[in-house]
């Protein structure tokens, strides 16, 4: 995306020192770093500790800094920092750069401030800075709620890389403009919708983000399994030897151990040296609706609830009628944090799929 104009020329710039003192101001003064001329430069009186203090009449937003040394005098900088003033009056470092050279662009999360400072921490010799330019890329909006099916109504949250930007959205398939509805509270959807959002900042419009949300009818829910009696608690565990490294190999492998365990944590505790496992049983949906399942694992892993399959890195959304639904979890245990299986949905706060929700 195209960057906005250089903001630095709008600011007043003061140097903590100038090469040659007052006599050197015309040749090496602070203004030389922000005049847009690569042939001029600011040089401090010392090779360490010089700084530029940049002040704007009102807050400005930026997320790019362009820096350039006056290479006619040699590449000298080897450590510098860019700090922005916080609302509390302190300083926060947003850039730490070891070298500059002919031209360096550094990107960072958008900041909004009235004052900043550039500190030349170390150099081989007295450095000469030919350019300090500040730019803002177009603001980037996003749909924070993952695309998913839903039953009844769904509240969708929007976000932006710059909290001060204005978000405008549409639900009719058109791109948002400056007069589209302004986002304040989560957008409530009750029908299948392609939601589009765009950020506006100081008259600049960012790219359009979009996400589709599919509304379900009760008839779309997967029917539950009917049991003649209450199913036995736990899940059926099949544990496999260390040599099984691939999930597809589980179907043809002979388990070294079988057991009934309460949940995934219980299965991990019961492996007794085995490294791969398969769990089979049923999950109880406490109410009709869409349930979001997530599987976390450092090793290969996959799971299925009803007709919905999922793996680490992306949630699985299962549209389930209240009652019991078949589940299968397969994974290979790898070094690192233990695998985890979580769920969130109607009547279920986000948390581990535990023994209370499971049966054989």
Secondary-structure map:
Blueprint: E1 12-15, H1 25-28, E2 50-69, E3 77-85, E4 91-97, E5 104-123, E6 129-135, E7 141-143, E8 149-151, E9 154-156, E10 158-160, E11 166-170, E12 187-189, E13 193-201, E14 204-205, E15 209-216, E16 235-240, E17 257-261, H2 264-269, E18 276-285, E19 289-296, E20 301-305, E21 308-310, E22 316-320, E23 323-332, E24 340-345, E25 348-352, E26 358-359
Parallel strand pairs: 8-15
Antiparallel strand pairs: 1-2, 2-5, 2-6, 3-4, 3-5, 7-10, 9-12, 11-13, 13-14, 13-15, 16-17, 16-18, 18-23, 18-26, 19-22, 19-24, 20-21, 20-23, 24-25
Structural features, described:
- Strands 16, 17, 18, 20, 21, 23 and 26 form a 7-stranded antiparallel beta sheet that branches. Strands 1, 2, 3, 4, 5 and 6 form a 6-stranded antiparallel beta sheet that branches. Strands 8, 11, 13, 14 and 15 form a 5-stranded mixed beta sheet that branches.
- By secondary structure, this protein is mainly beta.
- It has 2 helices and 26 strands.
- The longest helix has 6 residues, at 264-269.
- The chain is elongated and about 95 Å long.
- Helix content is 3%, strand content 48%.
């Amino acid at each position: 995306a195209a960057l906005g104009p250089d903001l630095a020329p709008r600011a007043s710039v003061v140097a903590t020192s100038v090469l040659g003192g007052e006599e050197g101001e015309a040749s090496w003064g602070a203004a030389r770093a922000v005049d847009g001329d690569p042939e001029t430069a600011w040089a401090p009186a010392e090779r360490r500790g010089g700084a530029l203090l940049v002040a704007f009449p009102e807050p400005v937003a930026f997320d790019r800094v362009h820096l350039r040394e006056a290479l006619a005098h040699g590449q000298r900088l080897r450590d510098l920092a860019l700090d922005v003033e916080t609302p509390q009056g302190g300083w926060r470092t947003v850039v730490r750069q070891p070298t500059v050279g002919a031209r360096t662009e550094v990107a960072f999360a958008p900041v909004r401030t009235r004052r900043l400072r550039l500190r030349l921490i170390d150099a081989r010799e007295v450095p000469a800075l030919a350019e300090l330019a500040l730019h803002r890329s177009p603001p980037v909006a996003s749909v924070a709620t993952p695309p998913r099916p839903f039953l009844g109504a769904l509240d969708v949250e929007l976000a932006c890389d710059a909290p001060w930007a204005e978000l405008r959205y549409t639900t009719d398939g058109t791109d948002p403009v400056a007069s589209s509805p302004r986002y304040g509270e989560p957008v409530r959807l009750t029908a299948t919708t392609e939601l589009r959002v765009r950020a506006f900042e100081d008259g600049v419009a960012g790219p359009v983000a979009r996400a589709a949300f599919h509304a379900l009818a009760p008839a779309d829910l997967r029917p539950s399994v009917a049991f003649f009696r209450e199913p036995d608690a736990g899940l059926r565990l099949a544990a496999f030897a260390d040599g099984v490294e691939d999930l597809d190999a589980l179907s043809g492998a002979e388990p070294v151990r079988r057991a009934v365990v309460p949940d995934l944590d219980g299965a991990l505790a019961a492996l007794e040296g085995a490294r791969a496992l398969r769990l089979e049983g049923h999950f109880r949906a406490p109410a009709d609706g869409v349930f979001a399942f997530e599987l976390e694992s450092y090793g290969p892993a996959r799971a299925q609830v009803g007709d919905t399959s999922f793996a680490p890195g992306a949630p699985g959304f299962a549209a389930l009628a209240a009652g019991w639904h078949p589940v299968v979890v397969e994974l290979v245990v790898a070094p690192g944090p233990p695998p985890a299986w979580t769920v969130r949905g109607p009547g279920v706060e986000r948390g581990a799929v535990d023994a209370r929700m499971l049966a054989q």
